[in-house]
Amino acid sequence: MTSDPPDPGEPGGEAVARVRAMLEQDAATAALGIEVVALAPGRATMRMTVRPDMVQGHGTCHGGIVFSLADSAFAAACNGRSRGPVFAASAEITWVAPAFLGDTLVADAVEHTRYGRNGVTDVAVSRQGDGALLALFRGRSVQVSRTPAPRLMKGGPR
Amino acid sequence: MTSDPPDPGEPGGEAVARVRAMLEQDAATAALGIEVVALAPGRATMRMTVRPDMVQGHGTCHGGIVFSLADSAFAAACNGRSRGPVFAASAEITWVAPAFLGDTLVADAVEHTRYGRNGVTDVAVSRQGDGALLALFRGRSVQVSRTPAPRLMKGGPR
Amino acid sequence: MTSDPPDPGEPGGEAVARVRAMLEQDAATAALGIEVVALAPGRATMRMTVRPDMVQGHGTCHGGIVFSLADSAFAAACNGRSRGPVFAASAEITWVAPAFLGDTLVADAVEHTRYGRNGVTDVAVSRQGDGALLALFRGRSVQVSRTPAPRLMKGGPR
Amino acid sequence: MTSDPPDPGEPGGEAVARVRAMLEQDAATAALGIEVVALAPGRATMRMTVRPDMVQGHGTCHGGIVFSLADSAFAAACNGRSRGPVFAASAEITWVAPAFLGDTLVADAVEHTRYGRNGVTDVAVSRQGDGALLALFRGRSVQVSRTPAPRLMKGGPR
User: How confident is the model at residue B115 (pLDDT cuts 50, 70, 90)?
Assistant: First the structure.
């Protein structure tokens, strides 16, 4: 399965620049120690090392933390091929194998298709070194207009 | 839709006690500031307040952190109705509304059904106070035998 | 988990009447032998008996046919609480137990939440008689404006 | 993202032969007019033309019928790389664009990964001719032992 060709009127470097600016404000991604390895329109690769504060009761990385890495890569990939902000609508993850303390995880995200304001992005999370696949993630995104919708604003009437 | 009746031979308090012990070793859940509100066989309620280090580029709580709260509640619910350790196989989340800095999120997890070694658990994440629904999560779990399978063990000391 | 309260300005009987009219034109649902048991705003119950032409290689009902029953109930439930046509955006199914030739399956659909133009509907498929749960389905819907978007129209007469 | 390399001890032609035998007994797939285009270990391509009895209320192919095509290809792909019968555990579909009466749909299934008795298979459904992507499907499978488990057999005590 191949990705769709980019739209003729698709943004190029300016969307990726917007993603970089967005990531500079992203305290959550920074707090998880997530590093950007590569960014391109519709693509993102990110990396995170499993710290002691990411390990859960079964002795392995918390599944939500693995998801968070994939989710950050998903957001960067789909925002990097869009003229306006893109939000995550839903996502699913299949955990293939556990990640352990000290493992460095690599998330590769590719926007598989875009239609109307919607998109589907696939992310594979693997372990750096042996390349073992750890998780498969699929996210669905929706582009919103530049003016935030009322339900996305805090403090006003809902 | 109602939950299935518990199996006649289903564990009671000892499974919930095992969940409590598991949570005491769960550094990731603790690091996220997740508190247990209530635990029962097949049910768990947990709470987390959105901190500055959980906010992302769009000015709202990172979607993976919302997922992590739901995932912790999922794990507690399904392990609390099982004789042996239960692992998450896959999960999906639909983000209904954004969570903001300072919001306290409440995750209510209910194991909807169990069949063979498999289970499906639904989690609703809402905002404390106005009760607004923020996300719907569905997780699929598999009970493993008490002896870890080789693929779950990592070579070398950790 | 309870359903959201209906919107104050929510449609009542006219939306359900629109669903009934829609179903009268739904050749696919009719060809599958799907019967409407009950319709209400945000809710639908449908029934289908597994015929010889619905059984697959493993000797059980084709998983896609079970999905189709759930999908028809999903469409009726969410259209019955909407002012305009609602389309399915994505859905997921977990098969809990097989259905066999001659079994009558009952799908109960409840629109769990609606936000903006989006909705999430849960469907449980069970076997009539013993009430055994056979599948859990979750669908995500989007309301479109009454005027079909260009991407939904196909060039040329049909 | 590439597929995993086949296991060293993986079955070859005999698994594909088993899939062909399975499909000969699959009345549901035949009744939907689904044709096999190509089969290989971990891969399957199938084709179906949208008939008048597959069209629903919105004037397009019933979403469950599109799902059924993808599901048949999923089953053939994952059974074609397995020593024993493989069952579908769960699946999700994103509908990208509608299919219309007379369209011929092509489903391309690739087993993305296999781990333990589990597997993940991705299916893309496109329209023959213009190749437009119509749906993305992801299925999770579990291999069962050759002896059916009691809960999978009909007629005995439940």
Answer: very high
A136 contacts chain D (CB < 8 A): yes
Taking alpha carbons only, the member of C83, C78, C76, C72 closest to residue C15 is C83
Task: State how far residue A74 is from chain B, nearest Cα, in angstroms.
Answer: 11
**pLDDT tens figures, D122-149:** 999 999 999 999 999 999 999 986 444 4
Integer angstrom CA distances of residue A69 from A34, A49, A99, D87: 7, 10, 12, 30
CA angle C60–C62–C68, rounded 5-degree value: 135
DSSP one-letter code for D101: T
Residue of B nearest to D151 (CA): B116
CA neighbor of B44 nearest in space, from B79, B82, B85: B79
Residue D95 and residue C11: Cα distance in Å, rounded?
26
Reply yes or no on whether the pLDDT at B155 is more than 60. Answer: no
Residue B148 near residue B127 (C-beta atoms within 8 A) = no
**Predicted confidence (pLDDT) at residue C42 exceeds the cutoff of 50:** yes
Inspect the interface and report whether the beta carbons of A85 and B58 lie closer than 8 Å: yes
Tokens of B31: 């690091």
Average pLDDT value for residue range C105-111:
98
- Tell whether B149 is within 8 A of chain D (Cβ): yes
Beta carbon pairs, C and D, within 8 Å: 143
Query: Are D89 and C68 a contacting pair at CB < 8 A?
Result: no
Instruction: For residue A140, list chain C residues with Cβ-Cβ distance below 8 A.
Output: 89-90
What pLDDT is recorded for position C82? 87
Interchain pair C90, A151: CB under 8 A: no
Q: Which residues of chain A have pLDDT under 70?
A: 1-12, 57-58, 145-158
* pLDDT at position D145: 65
Distance from CA of D151 to the nearest CA of B (A): 8
The alpha-carbon gap from B93 to the nearest alpha carbon of chain D, in Å, equals: 12
Interchain CB contact of D127 with A (< 8 Å) = no
- Check CB contact under 8 Å for D149 and B116: yes
Q: Do A58 and B98 touch (CB under 8 A)?
A: no
The model's pLDDT over D22-55, given as tens digits with 9 standing for 90+, comes to 999 999 999 999 999 999 999 999 999 999 999 9
Nearest to A69 by CA among A102, A96, A103, A46: A46
Say yes or no: D1 contacts chain A, CB-CB below 8 A: yes
The answer to whether residue B130 scores a pLDDT higher than 50 is yes
Q: Using the structure block, give the residue that is written with the tokens 């999430």.
A: C120
Mean pLDDT is lowest, of A1-5, B85-89, C143-147, D90-94, for A1-5
The ipTM estimated for the assembled molecules is 0.87
Interchain proximity B151–D115, CB inside 8 Å: yes
Q: What distance in Å separates the CA atoms of residue B128 and residue B141, rounded to the nearest whole number?
A: 27
DSSP 3-state percent helix, strand, coil across chain B (nearest 5)? 25, 35, 40
DSSP-derived letter for residue B102 is T
